[in-house]
Design goal:
It is built from one helix and 13 strands. The chain is mainly beta. The strands form three sheets. The chain has a six-stranded mixed sheet, with no helix packed on it. It has a five-stranded antiparallel sheet with strand order 2-3-4-5-8, with no helix packed on it.
Length: 147
Amino acid sequence: MNSRSAFVGVAIAAAAVSLTGTGTAGADTNDYLIGDTVYFNSGPAQCSIRPNGDVGCDIASGIATWLGVIPVTDLVIDVSFLPAHPTFGAFGPHGRADARTLDQGPNGYGSTVSYAGATCSGGGRGGTSCQAKGHSFSFGWSGTQTS
């Protein structure tokens, strides 16, 4: 195979993925809006995306740790100059118990919801992740990561 046909093959594959998606369902944001905030539940977490792009999740006890050792019950991305971090409940709850659960996507994977420049996914394989303001967090069966 020469480099030209390899390039064409990669370009076709990239176009196919962009047109068909990657197997993760995108949720309709309107299904999760309560007032001006997106609320959703995902596995052991109740989360929100605020209209300013702030993201926060209340997490069931024993699921997440910060810096690998400090047990936490919430994670947030609320300012662009700090990585994802816990608030230790100082600003109240982030989620709502009555929020809709993220739909189960194809092949057992969860859905993704985007709002106000933030994106969160979850609902499948025991994990939840969010990206906003140049930072991210994830938690679930594979541990907790923040950046």
